[in-house]
From TrEMBL, chain A:
Upper lineage: Bacteria, Pseudomonadati, Pseudomonadota, Alphaproteobacteria, Hyphomicrobiales
InterPro entries: BP-dependent_transpt_permease, MetI-like, MetI-like_sf
GO CC term (a single one): plasma membrane
Naturally occurring in which organism (per UniProt): Aliirhizobium cellulosilyticum
Protein name: Peptide/nickel transport system permease protein
Keyword Iron-sulfur set for record: no
Superkingdom of the source species: Bacteria
First-listed, main subcellular location of the protein, grouped into a coarse class: membrane
Family per record: Belongs to the binding-protein-dependent transport system permease family.
GO biological process: transmembrane transport
Key words of the record: Cell membrane, Membrane, Transmembrane, Transmembrane helix, Transport
Sections of the chain in a coiled coil: none
Membrane-spanning segments: 15-36, 81-111, 131-153, 204-225, 245-268
Automatic annotation (TrEMBL), chain B:
A biological process term (GO) from this entry: peptide transport
Name of the protein this chain belongs to: Peptide/nickel transport system ATP-binding protein
Chief location bin: membrane
UniProt entry tagged with the keyword Metal-binding: no
PANTHER family named among the record's database cross-references: D,D-DIPEPTIDE TRANSPORT ATP-BINDING PROTEIN DDPF-RELATED, TRANSPORT ATP-BINDING PROTEIN
Family: Belongs to the ABC transporter superfamily.
InterPro entries (UniProt xref): AAA+_ATPase, ABC_transp_ATP-bind, ABC_transporter-like_ATP-bd, ABC_transporter-like_CS, Oligopep_ABC_C, P-loop_NTPase
Segments forming domain ABC transporter: 10-256, 278-525
Source organism (scientific name): Rhizobium wenxiniae
Transmembrane domains' residue ranges: none
One annotated Gene Ontology cellular component of this protein: plasma membrane
Length: 280, 551
């Protein structure tokens, strides 16, 4: 339906270049992660350099690691684990946290109190510590890692969603929906969710960064992704002895972690803004 | 005599989100003689506050003075540096904000905040400043002028705080005081005391004033001259007498006509058999933990019994905190009543909305005061109106779409609005959508909780006319809750006066308009009239005022 009244409802967006840079880097890593098996120059397990911690060269663009394997190939394959595991974990954490948080805000009472205290208790355990304990107790397969990271970050997502939903819940339009006789599911997904989706997406980004850093941290300690696979944290861990030689093998994965987390932050700080200009 | 203030060709521009510049004040001229009080009047968005603030060389964030000159006592506020303006602010020009409650720092004693100006500008030694503050408290007829300053802001009433804010503005003996809607947030019974205090102090001290308001009747009491504004342009300027009695501009006349009492058009047929639609029997509702007698700690409504007849309207009136909104919320089942009985069309209603049947919920709809918060900002008008159609009547597709058009038509909105979100509508349009949503349920009775109080006078009058028209067409009944007597009189067949959670009187204007209960008398007599001499000639029984007004 088109409008002929003086102020049109055409909505445009402004997107700052800083945000675009962030988005470009994220897309770059996503593409690498998806295409890695087809574009890596050498198989990741093959020793291709006579020397270990070899420098950058035209043959080995990012040098070689502590066994003389091609760093570029290992980094590309590492992206699959770092991005993939973090993304899976953040999706589970944000979905459960948000759904529970909105339900707690709308239902209130005992449901809210018990759920909040339980998740507070979970939240009070330091994340690295619980990661260490779980990894030590039941080992660390990729599935275990995903579930563990999701559980660690669910309480935060819950808190955030609940705080937002509590504010929206006091609005008159929620009261109107309640007096209309609407069900709790309708109120949560149709009345509340559309109003808090923006901040929730920003929270999703931040939580992704946290999970990436925790995963890299665990891998660095040798408790994350296990050989023969290696994520970026594990790459830093296995090549740490190259630090005195200034080997690219230890610096490049660190830079990769930094570039991903910083660009996610840049993007969520500069999300496209809706311009509402009545008569433009 | 030379003018104290001379504004010539003032232009203020604002920058929008997309960087576009927009003129919000379009060349305004204004003169104020020493000791004169000029009122700036207009609806929201007319630029009245923006102009008042430019007198201090101040504009709100995103705005900028883009042209013209503002001479106050010989100095051009536009060209002065920020430091020079700061020297003048508070000393030569001072400001009384709309909400004194928000303007006072809750952690400091009142007296310290009142004398702060004398300290900043090094005008008086502290002891003398304190004495002066106390004499101002006396002049503003505040109770206990010696001690009231030692209290904290939350320990005094709203009307007192507003007068204390005026004392803060007057302590530096300014040449000009800007009053920005200082009585808008007050109850009518309180407003009178505050207005009287302002008027007598301003007259005695001979300070010039700018009084910003949307309420013509209030302005008529205090101003010498009135400037009518709309869309950042002066529509008409003249002495209070001329504006009230001999307005030239059509917009001014529209404003004036919105004030004229419009008694209910169709005369109530008293002989007709009255069939009760909604019966409220000894309803008590409140907040806080339940006491031993099964009632809540704070009883906002106590034993209210009200009957609404089919096809007739009931008005509930009272000041803020009298329990009128709580009553509406317990009728709607949002706040379940702790005792009492509700009967709608012969069937008893459960106290809580959750226990009521869908049919019962449909028959009784509630419309809230703030259309801004009652419409989900994330949804289009179409979705907002369509939901009750699907929910109550199971409508889908083209049937639903046709009905949405009909509803928009009923509330006199163009069909083109259906794809917009609430943020893209004006205040009056939003309130119409809010009302159309209640109509979509096809209710028997609609509870209107202060639905016109957030609207401008002219817009509110149009909404009231619309309600009357819809009632004739749809055989509805309204319960109309308001603090504004003229609104209630315009639409209601019966008026219930509430005070402190109790129904004190029920008046049927068609039989008698004269209230019997002393509180109703006080309330009815406190509504400002367009007559400039109304405030001076108004006589109130001091005992009555003491008993009921919280000034």
């Amino acid at each position: 339906m088109t409008l002929s009244t003086p102020f049109s409802s055409k909505v445009s967006y402004s997107f700052s270049w800083v945000g675009m840079v962030g988005l470009a880097i994220i897309v770059f890593w996503a593409v690498i992660a998806l295409a890695a098996p087809h574009i890596i120059p050498y198989p990741i397990g093959e020793i291709v350099d006579e020397d270990y911690f070899g420098p950058m060269s035209s043959k080995l663009l990012l040098g070689s690691d502590y066994l003389g394997r091609d760093m570029l190939s290992r980094l590309m394959m590492g992206a699959r684990y770092t991005v993939g595991i973090s993304l899976a974990a953040v999706c589970i954490a944000c979905f459960t946290g948000t759904a529970l948080g909105m339900a707690a805000a709308v239902i209130g009472g005992w449901f809210d109190t018990i759920l909040s205290r339980f998740l507070d208790a979970l939240n009070s355990i330091p994340s690295k510590l619980s990661g260490l304990v779980v990894a030590a107790a039941i080992g660390s397969s990729i599935n275990v890692l995903i579930v563990m990271l999701a559980v660690i970050y669910t309480p935060g997502a819950y808190r955030f969603a609940r705080a937002l939903a509590v504010n929206v819940n006091t609005m008159d339009y929620i009261t109107v929906a309640r007096t209309r006789g609407e069900s709790i599911l309708y109120i949560i997904f149709s009345e509340i969710l559309p109003n808090i989706i923006g901040p929730l997406l920003a929270d999703f980004g931040i939580r992704f960064v946290f999970i990436t850093l925790l995963l890299s941290g665990l891998s660095f300690l040798g408790l994350g992704v296990q050989p023969p696979y290696a994520d970026w944290g594990a790459l830093v861990h296995e090549n740490i002895s190259g630090l005195p030689f200034g080997a690219p093998a230890v610096i490049v994965p660190s830079l990769a972690i930094a570039s991903l987390t910083i660009s996610v932050n840049l993007l969520i700080d500069n999300l496209p803004k809706k311009i509402r200009d009545r008569s433009a | 005599m030379e003018n104290l203030v001379e504004i010539r060709g003032l232009k203020v521009e604002a920058t929008t989100d997309s960087g576009r510049r927009l003129d919000i004040i379009k060349g305004v001229d204004l003169d104020i003689a020493p000791g004169e009080i000029v009122a700036l009047i207009g609806e929201s968005g007319s630029g009245k506050t923006t102009i008042a603030l430019t007198l201090m060389g101040y504009t709100r964030t995103g705005c900028r003075i883009s042209g013209g000159s503002i001479h106050v006592a010989g100095k051009d506020m536009v060209t002065l540096s920020e430091r020079q303006r700061a020297m003048i602010r508070g000393r030569e020009i001072s400001y009384v904000p709309q909400s004194a409650a928000a303007a006072f720092n809750p952690t400091k004693r009142i007296i310290d905040q009142v004398v702060e100006v004398t300290h900043i500008h090094k005008l008086l030694p502290p002891a003398e400043a304190r004495q002066k503050a106390i004499s101002l408290f006396k002049a503003l007829s505040l109770p206990n002028p010696e001690q009231i300053g030692d209290r904290y802001p939350h320990q005094v009433s709203g009307g007192q705080l507003q007068r204390l804010a005026a004392a803060m503005a007057l302590i530096s003996d300014p040449k000009l005081v800007i009053f920005d809607e200082p009585t808008t947030a007050l109850d009518v019974t309180t407003q009178i005391e505050v207005l009287r205090a302002f008027k007598s102090v301003m007259k005695k001290s001979g300070i010039a004033g700018v009084y910003v308001s949307h309420d013509l009747a209030v302005v008529a009491q205090i101003a010498d001259r009135i400037l009518v504004l709309r869309n950042g342009e002066v529509q008409e300027v003249g002495s209070t007498e001329t504006i009230l009695n001999d307005a030239k501009h059509p917009y001014t006349r529209e404003l004036l006509s919105a004030f004229e009492p419009k008694p209910r058009g169709d005369q109530l047929d008293l002989a007709a058999e009255a069939k009760p639609l909604l019966e409220i029997n000894a309803l008590t509702a409140g907040y806080g933990p339940l006491q031993e007698d099964g009632l809540p700690l704070v009883r906002a409504v106590q034993e209210a019994s009200i009957t609404v007849q089919k096809g007739r309207n009931l008005g509930i009136i009272g000041e803020s905190g009298c329990g009128k909104s709580t009553l509406a919320r317990s009728i709607a089942g949002i706040l379940p009543a702790s005792s009492g009985k509700l009967t709608l069309d012969g069937r008893q209603l459960a106290p809580s909305a959750r226990q009521r049947s869908r049919e019962q919920l449909r028959e009784l709809q509630i419309v809230f005061q703030h259309a801004d918060t009652s419409l989900n900002p994330a949804k289009s008008i179409e979705d907002i109106l369509g939901r009750p159609l699907t929910f109550y009547h199971g409508m889908k597709g083209s049937q639903r779409s046709t009905r949405i058009d009909q509803l928009l038509d009923m509330v006199q909105l163009p069909k083109a609005l259906r794809s917009r979100t609430p943020a893209e509508l004006s205040g009056g349009q939003k309130q119409r959508v809010n009302f159309a949503r209640a109509l979509a349920a096809e209710p028997k009775i609609i509870l209107c909780d202060e639905i016109t109080s957030a609207l401008d006078t002219v817009v509110a009058a149009a909404v009231i006319d619309l309600l009357k028209e819809l009632q004739r067409e749809l055989a509805l009944s309204y319960i109309f809750i308001s603090h504004d007597l003229s609104v209630v009189e315009a639409i209601c067949d019966e008026i219930v006066v509430m005070y402190h959670g109790k129904k004190v009187e029920q008046i049927t204007p068609a039989i008698s308009k004269i209230p019997q209960h002393p509180y109703s008398q006080l309330l009815f007599s406190s509504v400002p009239k367009l007559d400039p001499n109304w405030l001076d000639s108004l006589e109130r029984d001091p005992e009555l005022v003491k008993a009921y007004a919280h000034a």
